[in-house]
Amino acid sequence: MKDKKTLAVVGCGFAGYTLIRRLASRVPELEVILVDPREAAVFLPLLPDVVAGNVSLDRLLFSLPEFCRRQRVTFINRSAERLDGERTLVLDNGKKVAFDYLVVACGMEPNFYGDERVRKVAFTLAGKDDARKLRARLQEVVGRGSGIPGWRDNTGRYPGLVGRDADGRFCPGVGISC
Ligand SMILES: Cc1cc2nc3c(=O)[nH]c(=O)nc-3n(C[C@H](O)[C@H](O)[C@H](O)COP(=O)(O)OP(=O)(O)OC[C@H]3O[C@@H](n4cnc5c(N)ncnc54)[C@H](O)[C@@H]3O)c2cc1C
To answer: In the CATH scheme, what is the code of domain 5-104?
Structure first.
């Protein structure tokens, strides 16, 4: 008979991280499994400073395999997709993880309230790739739009972060007509 109960934690952002820190060492009779597709978690509150160039992204990352090693937690570097029955998690590679207890702590996704056009052009800031993209765009805009003659793009538009779409609505990322 299995003597340890298994806790599966889906997601290691602030919620999953805090739960594991508080639980794993204090409840030795629990076997903890973390499922997260990321190798490194990001300290989100300082992400805008990465975009602004005040902080290097590397300083905001912490390694999940290392964290799990320290906490004696099994790390599965995959996405959880769905439940199979009441006690089995199915991963994106089709593998199954059996558990006794499950905590789903997989955060949020940006919400565009059903506006597809905004979704396509907007910059989001919910992770490290977003920060890289937004920083690159800002550098491009500042480079082109800093008073240097010829800063408009070849359609005569200022390639800004906020502008109007074809219907004249304000929209992030489409550029300002000048
Ligand atoms: C730019 C920015 C600045 C912020 N600043 C502040 C602040 O100053 N103060 C404050 O209190 N809050 C701030 N927040 C909000 C705060 O970061 C969030 O409330 C917090 O991160 C939510 O924690 P969470 O654990 O629920 O989710 P997250 O931190 O988003 O973590 C979710 C985790 O789940 C994983 N995951 C997602 N889907 C799956 C899946 N299918 N299977 C397995 N794993 C999955 C992800 O990889 C991730 O590791 C900020 C957020 C952002 C984006």
So the answer is: 3.50.50.60
Rounded Cα distance between 156 and 134, Å, is 22
pLDDT in tens, 120-132: 999 999 999 999 9
With a 6 Å cutoff on the Cβ, whether 78 touches ligand 1 is: no
- Report CA-CA distances (Å) from 172 to 58, 94, 159, 163: 27, 38, 11, 6
Ligand 1: centre distance to CA 152 (Å) = 37
> Domain-by-domain residue ranges, the chain?
5-104, 116-177
Q: What is the pLDDT, as a whole number, of residue 149?
A: 45
pLDDT tens column, 45-92: 999 999 998 999 999 999 999 999 999 999 999 999 999 999 999 999
91 CB less than 6 Å from ligand 1?
no
Residue 65, helix vs strand vs coil? helix
State which of 12, 34, 35, 44 you would mutate to test the pocket of ligand 1, scoring each by most atoms of that ligand within 8 A of its C-beta: 44
Q: Is the CB of 68 under 6 A from ligand 1?
A: no
